[in-house]
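Run log // design_07
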């Protein structure tokens, strides 16, 4: 077991929380759940599995995680940030244990996890989705989360990162209706993020190279294209250029919903806010 504290943010995650907690028990000395006043059995299940649970009003993921870091009384060398619909595999858990022990006193201050995304019961391996990478394990005191409304990343104050060889899983056991409702909510947060950071030339400067490039493309290229064109190009990029069609019907649905529904919804909400500000 690694010298590690895990923090999970939850809101009505009774379908996912048990899988998540059980997957991280082999690596985490302490598991902390920061719950946004769930109305289902999320809190009950988390406590039954040995997690320490705190409830806190949700503002955004960044502030919720910062609250978790403050209240968790972290005494471990490492911290893991993980969502309830994410879980480690036996192989990725073993690798985290190995890397945390090996790098306890090195300049490796962060571990980048690789995720295999499961959508509508199918593992997506194309469309630029696999592997989905996130810096989620970091040394306490060496990493902090960006304070933004959407697309927040862990940023290291010093040192370097190592990427895991083994995959973890992103698997939400909720249905497509939940996905749509969640992404409608995400779209609103994307709009806030857009207006707060669209003119910030230094935005993303502290991120690792891959995340920095993604942020640059999003704000300096994608958002500067015409509204209708950018969602269309995004779909073609995901589905044809990145071979999303090889994932079958689920790949088609995912690419279409991400581009022509979610990304276009974000654009429409940006347009709506600009129009309202001019009235």
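design_07 sequence
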């Amino acid at each position: 077991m690694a010298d590690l504290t895990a923090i999970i943010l939850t809101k009505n995650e009774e379908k996912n929380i048990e899988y998540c907690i059980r997957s991280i028990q082999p690596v985490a000395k302490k598991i902390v759940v920061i719950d946004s006043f769930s109305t289902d059995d999320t809190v009950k299940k988390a406590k039954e599995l040995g997690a320490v649970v705190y409830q806190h009003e949700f503002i955004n993921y960044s502030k919720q995680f910062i609250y978790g870091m403050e209240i968790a009384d972290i005494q471990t060398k490492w911290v893991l940030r993980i969502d309830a619909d994410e879980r480690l595999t036996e192989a990725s858990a073993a690798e985290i244990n190995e890397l945390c022990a090996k790098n306890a006193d090195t300049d490796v201050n962060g571990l980048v996890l690789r995720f295999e995304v499961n959508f509508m019961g199918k593992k997506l391996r194309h469309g630029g989705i696999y592997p989905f990478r996130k810096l989620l394990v970091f040394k306490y005191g060496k990493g902090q989360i960006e304070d933004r409304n959407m697309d927040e990343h862990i940023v290291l104050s010093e040192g370097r990162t190592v990427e895991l060889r083994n995959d973890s899983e992103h698997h939400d056991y909720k249905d497509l209706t939940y996905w749509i409702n969640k992404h409608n909510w995400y779209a609103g947060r994307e709009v806030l993020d857009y207006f707060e950071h669209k003119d910030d030339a230094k935005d993303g400067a502290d991120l690792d190279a891959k995340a920095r490039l993604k942020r640059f493309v999003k704000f300096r290229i994608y958002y500067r294209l015409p509204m209708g064109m950018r969602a269309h190009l995004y779909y073609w990029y995901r589905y044809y250029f990145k071979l999303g069609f090889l994932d079958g019907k689920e790949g088609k649905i995912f690419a279409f919903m991400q581009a022509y529904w979610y990304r276009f919804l974000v654009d429409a909400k940006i347009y709506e806010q600009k129009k309202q500000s001019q009235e």
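Helices lie at 17-24, 42-48, 61-71, 90-102, 176-197, 209-221, 227-241, 248-278.
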